[in-house]
Amino acid sequence: MHQNSNSSLLSQRAAVVLLLGVLAAVAATALTVLAGGALASGLLAGGGAFAAGVVFFNMIIA
């Protein structure tokens, strides 16, 4: 039962919001590690930045 062969898994808006969240996470991780933090600390900072970024970009992108 296939409704529409043209339907996509994610909308363009959702893809952009998630992409910006991932970019924020990568930037936060890289900056934390480059500042002398441990990799685990960088990954934790990146996870927080991803969550905050997704919420923020979801609010501002109409």
Keyword list:
mainly alpha, 2 helices
Structure overview:
It is built from 2 helices and no strands. It has 62 residues and is mainly α. Helix 1 (12-34) runs antiparallel to helix 2. It is elongated. The termini are far apart. The mean pLDDT is 93.
Report how far the terminal alpha carbons are from each other: 33 Å
Helix amount, in percent?
A: over 70%
Number of helices: 2
Question: What fraction of residues sit in β-strands?
Answer: under 5%
List the quaternary state of the chains. Answer: single chain
Query: What would you report as the Rg, rounded to the nearest angstrom?
Result: 15 Å
Q: Which residue ranges are poorly predicted, with pLDDT under 50 across at least 5 consecutive positions?
A: none
**Strand tally:** 0
Largest beta-sheet characterization = none
SSE run = HH
Rough outline: elongated
What structural class do you assign from the helix and strand content?
mainly alpha
Mean pLDDT: 93
Q: In brief, what are we looking at here?
A:
The protein is mainly α and 62 residues long. It contains two helices and no strands.
Task: Please specify the SSE layout and strand pairing.
Elements: H1 12-34, H2 39-60
Helix pairs in contact: 1-2
